[in-house]
Amino acid sequence: MPTKRSFKCKHCGECCKLIVKVSKDDIKRIEKAGHKKESFLVEDPMEPDSVIKDSMKRVNNRCIFSYNKGDKYLCGIYKLRPDNCRIYPFFNKQVKTCKPDTLLKWW
């Protein structure tokens, strides 16, 4: 039986420091909202030979859609965010930077 996991985000912004690969569906979803592809995409510098070449553009080591509000980091395209952002931190068991308030596991 699949494991269902959830967590409570602390808005620390650590996830926004990652290089996030984006799918064609992610790109279409963000473009449909009026963002031009060249304004938010860059070829992944770490994997030039990868099948999925596009990743979110970063400024000052953070996703360009990440912004600071008080002591929290928020996503400017939260409802449109890439699938890899939607499943963070569960896409990579090695992620050590996300320190959620709660991390629950149901069997």
Task: Give a short synopsis of this structure.
The chain is α+β, with helices and mostly antiparallel strands. The chain is built from three helices and eight strands; from the N terminus they run βααββββββαβ. It is globular, with a radius of gyration of 14 Å.
Give a structural overview.
The chain is of the alpha+beta class and 107 residues long. The chain has helices at residues 24-32, 37-40, 83-86; strands at 4-7, 41-43, 54-56, 58-59, 62-63, 66-69, 72-75, 103-106. The protein has one domain. A hairpin with a 2-residue loop joins strand 4 and strand 5 (62-63). The longest helix has 9 residues, at 24-32. It is globular and about 35 Å long.
Poorly predicted regions? 100-107
The Rg value, from CA coordinates, equals: 14 Å
Number of helices: 3
User: What is the number of strand segments?
Assistant: 8
Which strand order do you get reading across the main beta sheet?
1-8
Overall mean pLDDT stands at: 78
Q: What percent of the residues sit in helical stretches (DSSP H or I)?
A: 10-25%
Distance between the termini: 7 Å
Order of helices and strands: EHHEEEEEEHE
Strand coverage percent: 15-25%
Main sheet properties? 2 strands, antiparallel
Classification by helices and strands: alpha+beta
| Oligomeric state as shown | single chain
Total individual domains: 1
Note the overall shape: globular
